[in-house]
Write a structure and sequence with these properties.
The structure is a homotrimer of 357-residue chains.
Chain A (H helix, E strand, L loop, with lengths): L11 H16 L12 E6 L4 H13 L3 E5 L13 H8 L5 E6 L4 H8 L4 E6 L5 H15 L6 E5 L6 H10 L6 E5 L8 H9 L5 E4 L2 H4 L5 E4 L10 H7 L18 E3 L20 H21 L11 E2 L19 E7 L2 E6 L8
Parallel strand pairs in A: 1-2, 1-3, 3-4, 5-6, 5-8, 6-7, 8-9
Antiparallel strand pairs in A: 10-11, 11-12
């Protein structure tokens, strides 16, 4: 495999290398403007995500390559029921690297194993979105100078936000990381993140519900959206929603070198007035996302042994996760992997990584 | 600002310059085939308009640049509610110039003020569509040799057609222009065009309802479509619709050097039989549109002080125009400008230019 | 005309030439990577077909050209009712060659006659899809070494499958071709293929219903999908559907050098297990499709007298085929051609080729 499915497929050294390439691209774009001449990226978006797609396409074009694009499911063969496997095999005849977004968890994994060219996961349902996390990490690196000794506040929907889980995962690998997890009770991080990441790696963290109280402690504030539909109790939603909106007023107690991140799109969880504050980094983050995608494409097209790690698999019954790709893909064997997690042997679906019960 | 929002943002000198560039491109395309090497155009279409989008994309490609594209709203983040402001800021990280089409009036204005790259209005609701007018103007220039001393017939829906209002505006700046406005009573030009443009600038015009009678007088005939849904009285529609269809027969009394224009797409308001008449210029108009878009992209990417004109703004209540972008965009201050119009001080919405009541 | 509407517009010599170009492209891609520099392909897809579109776009990009794209009808002016004629005329101002896909039969013919640049039929309803047949033919040529003396099994829906009819047409021109037509009774080839092609050219063929029995005889097996909606009797469908699914077991009696083709997308008519069998050629077919599209684009852009053959036409009443483009296109004269077919003078619609009754 020479693909990127999850950000933790990358070692910290590989991540460092990607960051360094991205920074060099930022400083000397002319050195890279011909690196992918004659190469093609296919953007296969089985659900629309314009920003992510355009970021990938801009990245490839700035490397001198070109793009073929399936911009959204309504304009695709998906209606005719073509499998991810067949699509990935066929598009491998047309492109040198594939970026795939799909509503089903594990779809990028299936594509990576069927394709004969490298595959980048541009989001597979609620599962992973590694290039967003690469954008987050480069932004932290550029704004704070290092990944070490940072107190990172993460605010909003910590239960369902896949970018939040990936960021916790990725930053837990660095010395001195501390998290302050700011959310309503109902939307705290799931147990598997708490146990398998934070507890396992002995990362200090606090769970609080008040953004303003946490503010003065933070080096990084990662904002996310709270979706109305996540709440069972609408009174609770109405009572809480404003307390998780970042305003100029709430920033008054923040450090002067705080870095405010947001994966975008925002709805109203950060006031537009904050945009002009020098601590607002979310538009820089969009630029950093493009730079990291450039570094990643270069890496994947240049190397033949990137992310190589065959897994031992065990056949098993149908995956219980309704969002798993195994539920819709033709003749896909249900396979599982096992590993030690928090002192316990855990069996997980090979595709979506849901725990087998 | 280095953007093009309305055709009247251009002085007659700037317009002349664009026409001259376009004509030079037509004659020596090879001189321009590398001018935008390494540059990217983003086409952000929040509503579909294939012809306009393809024209912009062809223009950029013929200049040696490349394109990233959001081809229609169904394939966009718009579903997730991202604001025009955020989209424009983010896409500024991916592209060197943006062409935006949006159903809301003033949306291109908002994009131009949020973007860090030049923005071209590719149509903002019923408000403006300046590159269509640039296509119209170059066609008049090429076919008639000059913008002066022309009798211009405009036929069809003169009430709602934004291209009609822009053309009247643009041509009213030239010596000897005379308009013959051909439409059913119900679909005559709106008062603000009559008063603020024609009367203010003392342009001779006639309002008539009979296309055939007007025909022999015309140097230019600009046809537009009459949409059934514009009529309140269906009997009236049935009675009138055929009289505004241009046929070979109706052309028999026309001048031999008449230039027939149409912004396209047509439905049936010009018979296909007319296409082979040498006076039919509407397909040339499509070519001219591409040439003017090339000239415009060159101008916007080459200059830092194009269309520079900061406006004095006054805060005010919510704009009353239901189609205004202020009704949907997050935290957009309602701002107004004031100017003398026809001897009267008029306050207008900064975004959609609707008069404040 | 310098367009490709139907595969039989090509003589066997022209087909040979295209195959040779495609093979040379496969062997020496670097020799072709600049052949279309500065040229543009427009992909106008009035219905979505992602694979076909991406194949065309990849082909043009690998020739050094660029692409403008209308990826599917929802993102098009089609909603506004623009005719094929107008679209083809306008897009001729933007591109050097057009690939059009449209749900109406004869639409590509209309486009070819209105456009001022070459047009490639990328599928016009149930009528023709010549570049699919070009992919099929190159695959047969590469896998079998020659077009002569082959026993070709075609399995599945032989009644409605346009790729099946084209393949029979094309292969009937070669010495020693024999067909074994494998389908349920209800889905046998239509009479006009039987009479006008097979009988007329004295091609030996058998019609059978059992795939397994036919298997040992075949040099080529062309699989197609049987769509549930083609059956009037659902019991019949349930009883038959599995017998037309190709599995590893059914391949046990096949020749060791059998070539298995499928136009894709498949649903489940070939088991995924077959993909790894060296006789499975359907993914190679996708690659061959791109190569033939490259050869075709080169041919159409390089020559001014390709497929030149004006037809004598006769005016007539409205075409009776409900799927014909004449039913929807503005002011399209209903025209017919006549020719000898099987000893009988037959009059056919110029556009969709349906027989006039």
């Amino acid at each position: 495999m020479r693909s990127l499915l999850d950000v933790t497929d990358l070692s910290t050294d590989e991540l460092e290398e990607l960051c360094n390439t991205a920074l060099d691209v930022a400083e000397h774009p002319e050195r890279y403007s011909d690196k992918c001449r004659g190469k093609k990226l296919a953007t296969l978006f089985f659900e629309p995500s314009t920003r992510t797609r355009l970021s990938f396409e801009a990245a490839m074009l700035e490397l001198g390559g070109s793009v073929i694009s399936m911009p959204g499911v309504s304009a695709s063969s998906a209606a005719k029921g073509e499998s991810v496997h067949d699509t990935a095999r066929v598009v491998s005849c047309y492109a040198d690297v594939i970026a795939i977004r799909h509503p089903k968890e594990g779809a990028a994994f299936v594509a990576a194993h069927s394709a004969t060219v490298p595959v980048i996961n541009a989001g597979d349902g609620g599962h992973c979105h590694p290039t967003q996390t690469l954008a987050d990490l480069l932004t932290i690196k550029r704004e704070k100078g290092s990944f070490e000794n940072l107190t990172i506040g993460i605010c909003g929907d910590l239960k369902y936000g896949r970018t939040v889980h990936s960021l916790i995962n990725a930053m837990s690998r660095y010395k001195g990381t501390k998290f302050i997890l700011i959310s309503p009770e109902e939307l705290r991080i799931p147990d598997y993140v708490r146990k398998n990441v934070l507890d396992e790696l002995h990362i200090p963290y606090e769970e609080v519900s008040d953004l303003e109280k946490a503010m003065p402690l933070l080096d990084v504030l990662y904002m996310t959206r709270i979706q109305r539909e996540r709440f069972t109790d609408m009174d609770e939603f109405e009572r809480l929603k404003d307390s998780y909106i970042l305003t100029i007023e709430k920033l008054s107690s923040a450090k002067s070198d705080l870095a405010i991140l947001h994966p975008l799109p925002r709805v109203n969880e950060i006031s537009v007035k904050v945009d002009d504050d020098p601590r607002a980094c979310y538009f820089k983050q969009a630029l950093n996302g493009k730079l990291m995608r450039m570094a990643l494409i270069l890496k994947l097209l240049g190397s033949r042994d990137f992310c190589e790690e065959p897994k031992v698999t065990i056949p098993g019954p149908t995956c219980k996760n309704h969002a798993c790709i195994t539920g819709v893909e033709q003749e896909l064997d249900c396979l599982y992997t096992e590993r030690e997690e928090n002192g316990r042997r855990v069996r997980r679906c090979l595709y979506c990584e849901a725990e087998a019960l």
